[in-house]
Amino acid sequence: MEKQEMLALLEQVQQGALTPEQALLQMKLQPFQDLGYAKVDHHRGLRQGAQEVIYGAGKTAEQIDGILTAMESRDATDIIVTRMNQQSADYVAQRHPMDYDPMSRLGIVHPTGKITAPGYIAVVSGGTSDMAVCEEAARTAIAMGNKVERLYDVGVAGLHRLLSKLDVLMQARVVIAVAGMEGALASVVGGLVDCPVIAVPTSVGYGANFNGLSALLSMLNSCASGVSVVNIDNGFGAGYLASMINHMGGSDQ
C-alpha cells in the first residue's frame, strides 16, 4: 500500500464511506502476499517510499511473472526487475508491458516516464566497458522518477573528456561515478562537485583488478569528501540511493 492509498483510505473513513473496522481489515490484508515461493511486500512503498524491486537472477520466468501479477493487482507501475536474462524477459514481455534493456538486464514493467524529483542525476562512466553497470543505475533512477544525464567514457585516461562536461556535472544533485580498473574516477569527480557522489566499482580490468576489488578499495580510500561507495557492479544500489537523495527536499509534482 502506497502512501497515497493509505491517505485515500483514511479520507474514506473520515467521510464515512468506510467504517474504521473495514479500513483496518484492508490494512491487515495489505502487508504482504504469500505466493508460496515469494512473499510480495505490498507495504514497502509506505515504509520506504519505494515499492518492492524484483531481483530476477535465480528466479524462473514463471516466478517473476507471478510476482508481477501480484503487484499489478495493486495497480503498481514502474516495477523494476533486475538481472533478468533474455529468456525470462521474452516470457515476461508476452504477459506484461515491459521496457527491457539487454545490456543492463533490467526491465521496467508498466513504465510511465513520470518525473517526481526536482533535479537530475548524472551517471558518469570511466569507459565504455562500464556501460552495463551504468545503465542499470540510470534505468533504476529513471524508473523511480528521476531525470538522468549520461556521461559515458570520460575516465581519467583522457581527463579532458570529463572536463568538457563540467557544466553537466556541477548542476547535478547527485553524481554516480562508475569505474573499473583502478577506480580513480570517483575521486576526480568528488573533487569537482558540491553534491553527493556515489561510487560504483566494476569488475572491469586486468588480473590485478581482482574482479573489481582494486577499484572498490581505491574508492573506499578516496581523498575526496562526499564520496560514498556501493558494492562491485551494483548499479541498482547506486541508482536507488541516488533517487532517495534526489527526492529529498520536494518534487516537481
From TrEMBL:
Q: Which organism is it from?
A: Allofournierella massiliensis
Q: What is this protein called?
A: Nickel pincer cofactor biosynthesis protein LarB
InterPro entries, A to Z: P2CMN_synthase_LarB, PurE_dom
The PurE domain covers which part of the protein? 119-251
SUPFAM superfamilies, sorted: N5-CAIR mutase (phosphoribosylaminoimidazole carboxylase, PurE)
